[in-house]
User: Which sequence fits this backbone?
């Protein structure tokens, strides 16, 4: 996953200035059918029972330079086609809000009526180099 421009700036401000950028207090995983970028954008899934899924403060674990999901992240059963999911992102709100980081899935997945997308524990990884 890649930090967005906004959160790269916040990280640099925290590291190299005396400013105190506001830290998110909630994290939500979103799914995309077209790639976002460091500037945002992309096409987030909408409709057909789709909703961003909360990953609480204890939902991410950090070890070394990697953060990962501590538990399964399960999206609701699709009531219609969501299309082909190619990317995921982390936001600071259940709707709208700021995209924090994004990345491509290791394998795209087409979600049709009745399907459930589940990200198993340990499979949503964010690494800083």
Assistant:
């Amino acid at each position: 996953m890649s930090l967005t421009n906004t959160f790269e700036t916040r990280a640099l401000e925290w590291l190299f200035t005396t400013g105190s950028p506001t830290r998110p207090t909630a994290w939500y995983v979103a799914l995309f059918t077209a790639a976002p970028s460091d500037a945002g954008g992309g096409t987030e899934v909408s409709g057909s029972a789709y909703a961003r899924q909360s990953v609480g403060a204890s939902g991410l674990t950090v070890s070394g330079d990697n953060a990962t999901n501590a538990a399964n992240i399960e999206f609701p059963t699709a009531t219609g086609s969501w299309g082909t999911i190619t990317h995921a992102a982390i936001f600071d709100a259940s709707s709208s809000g700021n995209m924090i980081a994004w990345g491509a899935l290791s394998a795209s997945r087409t979600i049709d009526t009745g399907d459930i997308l589940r990200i198993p524990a340990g499979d949503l990884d964010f690494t800083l180099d």
